[in-house]
Amino acid sequence: MPSSPVPSDSTGQAPNSEGRSGLDHLLTIPRGIAQVDFQSNYWTGLVFLIALFVGGWQFGVFALLGTVVATLTAYLFGVSWQKRVSPGLEGFCGTLIGVSLVLYLDIRWMTVALVILGAIAGSVLTSAMNVVLTPYDLPTFTAPFCVITTVMVIGGPSFSRVWAEHAGSAPPSATAPGTEMTWTYFWKGAFNGVGQVFFQNEWYVGVIFLIGLFIAGWRIGLVAFVSSLIGLLTGWALGAQAADLGAGLYGYNSVLTGLALFGTFVAVSSAGAVFAVIGTISAAGLTAGIGNLFEVVGGHTLTWPFVLVSWVFLAAVPMFNKLKRAG
């Protein structure tokens, strides 16, 4: 399958089919899952889905639910099939809404209902944000997911049927405080930083996600892993809690930022590499700030650091003569 840029939110493997075959409709779902990491390669999406099921059947099921509902909503309202729906650009925020809500609210019918409503709202918000951001040549990234999930977890405690049985989400450092880095924390944190993009904190699940990224391209996998390491090392240098570093909590926003700023939206170059490294460091540093800001509602950082840093860095690109946008 030829590699070519996919409009707006991703680059990666473009769909084979020009039409709307049944297979193309079906493959839209794994592409949507892969687009969480900016890939439209359905093999990558299938590997990601396997990783989610390895992490827990509920993550796989709710990721599928969110992706299908968000994609179907966009399709039914007439969003461009070729430019947006088929490459999976309308599904990935639904993926993250499904995974995050089952993590925070546990496995219940109420969670099913909220994922469906959240994915529909996320689809509408995605289109609204595209209208606002496209004139500035900025993608929505995962901002619709961040907005919808943040609103739900802030409002959740007001509704007993939503919050009464919600799952605890305290960081690992709550039970294992300390800043002393160990080898175990280090190597697990490097892989967990990749997995935490999907809220997974088992290192072997992160390895499966990394395999999916290498399927999309060796550079993509390498950038993701190096970005995770940069986020981890930034947190360690600043004195973050070692258990949180080992869980990948300082790596995943750096992973997304590195992928966005090196090859996906900014052209590959030596200056681009330096630019991306600065971005990944910034995302890791902002992680603690956003977490503290949201501490009153459980400290749900989500992917806000990645979104905010990447918007700022992409907006700055036209001012730098040694950088240029990809594509």
From TrEMBL:
Compartment(s) of residence: Cell membrane
Keyword list, A-Z: Cell membrane, Membrane, Transmembrane, Transmembrane helix
Transmembrane domains' residue ranges: 46-77, 89-107, 113-133, 145-164, 207-238, 259-290, 302-320
Membrane topology category: Multi-pass membrane protein
Domain of life of the source: Bacteria
Family note: Belongs to the urea transporter family.
Protein name in the entry: Urea transporter
Organism: Actinocorallia aurantiaca
